[in-house]
Amino acid sequence: MYKPQPQDPTSTNQPPVAPVQNPIAPAGAVRVLAPEGHFPQWLQDELKGLSTFQVTTYSSISQAKEKVVGQLFDLYLIPDRAVIEGIAHQKFLPLPQGFMEPKELPIQTYLNHPLDPHNQFSLPYGCTYYGFAYHKDALPKGIKSWKDLFAGDNFAQTDFPQDSELLYILTLIAEGQVGKTDKKLDFKTPSSAQGEEFPLRVRTLSELRKLSPQNPAWQVVTPEDGSAIELYHIALGALQPPLGEIVKKFLNPLIAARISEENQFSSTFKAVLNLQSQVTRKNLNPDSKWMDKAIFIRPPKAAKAHS
């Protein structure tokens, strides 16, 4: 029998963190904004001959946006939805000409989308997809699709992120799968006793996969009816000399593959995919038929991934 558990303290379903003043960086340090795990200590050690680093991390889209707007960094590793915030607030410099050789660029699928149509300010280095996990004791028969999740009682037992743009996309998916949804529900997590955890949780697959080894009672699902995609981009706030070498190191296929596998997200680079085992590639990269159903999150409107 499923028993409620304490809410995960790292959950993205938390109030956004207000931007704070920049901490004082060591002289000459490169200031980096990155998702948790994407600029790890071992990478900083690898790069110590080039610079010292002051790394600020975030754990949700809202935190990423607020830190982009409220602070200054030299190197940004951010979701595509934070890219538009940085461009609007003039936080980024245009990428230098010849930033990468054409043969080294990301796979075409991930380039030239509406938030930065010509990749003038940002370049995608990784992506993840939204899925869900369910507690096996609560749902012994399991569920495989958004259609199942949006049906009946499952919807009312689901913990959704507080992310209006994502929920807009899920509304489109729901309407495509089960017909017109009740907008009054508005994807709000149902009221519950404090500390209760719901038996269904919607999050990025990278987050769910990282948590699943410590939570074997939870089954992670890549929805068979497609999903929403979240891209991670590199953007530059400065062009000081070490940054070019730092970015080259970060994008080195061996380093990029390790970061991808440690954080359970898909790389956008063919050279990285060629390095990874067949099992890893299959786990992190959905097949082309699934991608045909996928949607990039593009506020206020969505664009099909293959369009």
N- and C-termini, Cα separation? 45 Å
Q: Major sheet, described briefly?
A: 11 strands, mixed
Unreliable stretches: 1-25, 190-195, 300-307
Q: What are the secondary-structure elements, in order, as H or E?
A: EHEHEHEHHEHEHEEHHEHHHEE
Number of strands: 11
Put simply, the count of helices is: 12
**Computed Rg:** 20 Å
Average pLDDT reading: 81
Shape descriptor reads globular
* Percent strand: 15-25%
User: What share of the residues lie within helices?
Assistant: 25-40%
What is the structural class?
Answer: alpha/beta
Architecture overview:
The chain has helices at 41-46, 61-70, 80-88, 146-149, 152-156, 164-178, 205-211, 242-251, 253-263, 270-275, 278-284, 288-291; strands at 30-35, 53-58, 75-79, 123-135, 158-159, 200-204, 218-221, 228-236, 266-267, 295-296, 303-304. The chain is an alpha/beta fold. Strands 1, 2, 3, 4, 5, 6, 7, 8, 9, 10 and 11 form an eleven-stranded mixed sheet that branches. Helix 2 (61-70) packs parallel to helix 3. Mean pLDDT is 81; it is low at 1-25, 190-195 and 300-307.
